[in-house]
Amino acid sequence: MGQDEFARMVETYCKQHGLSLREFGDRVGRTASALSRLLRGETTPTVYTLKAIHDATGIPLLSMVYALVDMEPENDPKAAQFFALFGALTQRQQQALIELLEALAAG
């Protein structure tokens, strides 16, 4: 999994919707060059970028996080617990948690 899996998710979405990287970037509010670096694994997405991708595509945030951290929760009890709790939240609760994390990250 890992960054490659994340890139596949985005590339599959673009292909299915006939979008160039530039058009996709317009939808998520990022430049094509920034997205290209991200998909090649040269940079790591911020919470803001993941949220923008989710909002534009509907790709579940949890799926993107799983892919990015290259995690198999069944092999990591703490990760399994976190993702089970996060996954049990409603979409509204997940959004509130993400906003809280963004606020904390912003200082």
What does this structure look like?
It is a single chain. By secondary structure, the protein is mainly alpha-helical. It has a single domain (3-106), classed as lambda repressor-like DNA-binding domains (434 Repressor (Amino-terminal Domain), Orthogonal Bundle), CATH 1.10.260. Helices cover 73% and strands 0% of the residues. It has seven helices and no strands. The protein has helices at 3-16, 21-28, 32-39, 47-57, 61-69, 77-88, 91-106. α1 packs across α5. The longest helix is centred in the C-terminal third of the chain and has 16 residues, at 91-106.
Helix/sheet category: mainly alpha
Which consecutive residue ranges, at least 5 long each, have pLDDT under 50?
none
Percent strand equals under 5%
Major pleated sheet: none
Rg computed from alpha carbons, rounded to a whole number of angstroms: 14 Å
H/E element order: HHHHHHH
Given the C-alpha coordinates, what overall shape results?
Answer: globular
Helical fraction equals: over 70%
Straight-line distance between termini: 32 Å
Overall domain count: 1
Please give the count of helices: 7
The average pLDDT is: 82
What is the CATH architecture assignment? Orthogonal Bundle
